[in-house]
Amino acid sequence: MLTIRNLSVYYSNIQALQDVSLSVEEGEIATLIGANGAGKSTLLKTISRIHPLTRGDINFLGHDLTKLSAAQVVKAGISHAPEGRRIFPEMTVLENLEMGAYTKGSSFRNNLDRVYRIFPVLKERREQLGETLSGGEQQMLTIGRALMATPKLLLLDEPSMGLAPTLVRTIFDIIQQINREGTTVLLVEQNASMALSIAKTGYVIETGRVILKDTARNLILNPQVREAYLGKRATSLKQSKGARL
Fold it and tell me: Which end of the chain has fewer CB atoms within 10 angstroms, the N or the C?
């Protein structure tokens, strides 16, 4: 479904991504794990064309995304739920959801009904301002807004950030439900254990480079990955004692 080859991205004169290649198969959950500053969010922003690339190829269902605007990427079938939620705080829940559906027109009602079915609390809060929602509810609104565009591929950036453990489990259960209903997911997540527990394929990124790809199950069992990302303190595979990748 999504193929990225030799992608490089800069912020001014600082290289954020270097020759990144990965692929996401239709129907799967793929996850990208890594420490803060590794380039995870930059990759999602580049896929959704929020951030320009220096070189490389991004192909989605036959579309060369490097030639599309951010709005055209949404129309092509990719929605992005960004890190930090980024809801419109002074708009109601319903108005936030309407913003996510600006490309859909006549299918708005069906999409809204689906979001309300997945997130019943959003229906209850539909007339409340976004800023009055709890952190978990705001995260649900962020994902719900992305779903309003009926994406074939959903980009999720740190959906568990700042949430209590019980809410984290709820959000990950919902991600699996969305996937079972036919939406492919590319998940960026610092909670590597949770991300790998629901994913089929995993990538490890460090300092702008993808250094490891495997099935999620194999990554969970990889002793270097366990030491670097699944222990009490995330480090680096390059710093893990005896790591041979």
Answer: C
Cα separations (Å) of 240 from 17, 202, 215, 221, 224? 22, 19, 20, 15, 6
* DSSP state for residue 190 in the 8-state scheme: S
Please write the tens of the pLDDT for every residue from 16-48: 999 999 999 999 999 999 988 899 999 999 999
E strand intervals along the chain: 2-11, 14-24, 29-33, 55-60, 63-64, 78-81, 153-157, 184-188, 201-206, 209-215
pLDDT in tens, 124-155: 999 999 999 999 999 999 999 999 999 999 99
CA-nearest of 125, 52, 57 to 87 is: 125
For 180: left if phi > 0, alpha if psi spans -120 to 50, otherwise beta; the answer is: alpha
Written as one letter, the residue type at 3 is T
Picking from 163, 169, 203, 171, the residue whose alpha carbon sits closest to that of residue 186 is 203
* Contact (Cβ atoms closer than 8 angstroms) between residue 79 and residue 151: yes
Crossing angle between the packed helical segments 93-100 and 135-147, to the nearest 10 degrees: 30
